């Protein structure tokens, strides 16, 4: 289900209409829109809570954006901009689908999002508390966003149990199955920080001397992924197998269209097969 609702959410990062909506309220530049839009449910927050909740960014990269972005747009303006841009993007992808399709998908996804467990899940909780959207695409996008932030909170909790710090996690993933050329600048880590992280990963048995992932690391990260999935299962157990399957059928054509704007080397890590 994550591979289906994540692309719906992700249009806010990659679609030109989403960028334009942020720029219209004064959030020019990709990262201003990103940090303001994603952090806006927290209110006019400063950098430390976002460093903690977003996990993988270099602290100074977050501090460059927060709290200064609130002088350009209030959290309320950022929330309106992110929803406006996302809905416009989804409208471009779904105009051929019947209205009944979108309403049913929004109803089921919204019901699933209404069953998230908020204890210990800050980003999931603040998104779940936002007002209900007025139109099907707004409801669909907000529900997808609540579910992905809820899942992300659980993923961060699972990562913390490994004892790795954020730059170590990102550096390891880039040795395992991601691109350093893309992820290092996207997360704001310096060459020195990256090299030091890899050295620590070697010392701790996550990388070999040749900087290859060890069997221990691969097995441990598989455990993290399994824990992430278990922590995210509540909404789907509540929805039930039959209605979850129906939602899968409804989301597939929407997710397939949304996937066309997501770069293959994106930090989201969606399976490449989903991009077809």
UniProtKB/TrEMBL annotation:
This is SalK. It comes from the Bacteria. InterPro entries: HTH_67. It holds the Pfam family HTH_67. NCBIfam families: SCO6745_fam_HTH.
